[in-house]
Amino acid sequence: xxxxxxxxxxxxxxxxxxxxxxxxxxxxxxxxxxxxxxxxxxxxxxxxxxxxxxxxxxxxxxxxxxxxxxxxxxxxxxxxxxxxxxxxxxxxxxxxxxxxxxxxxxxxxxxxxxxxxxxxxxxxxxxxxxxx
Length: 132
Prior knowledge:
Elements: E1 4-7, E2 12-18, E3 22-25, E4 28-42, E5 47-59, E6 62-64, E7 67-75, E8 80-82, E9 85-87, E10 89-92, E11 97-99, E12 102-104
Parallel strand pairs: 1-3, 2-4, 3-4, 4-5, 5-6, 5-7, 6-8, 7-9, 7-10, 8-11, 9-12
């Protein structure tokens, strides 16, 4: 537990990539990536042409495809993403590249909802006195 599998810079994969552990990809992947219960990091040399489905996705390299994350998608300064994002939380660093659409989808019970704020002003009598 706690270990991260790494796909090195010289590795090229075509097809479906699935797993049950955190993964860092610094190589090339074409196809689909399924890591529903784990984190995926696209390293600085990573070049991905795939749809991604993971718990958390961090993009430092380049991705072409749709990204779905159960928790968070983060595009770092050097990261590039061309595709649509579906996630409850999104972080895009200054300098990152993103072209696509975003759907912020929050699952029930994932984040405690804050109580709705009453926008009506509360009038306190002591603040209403007028001095002449």
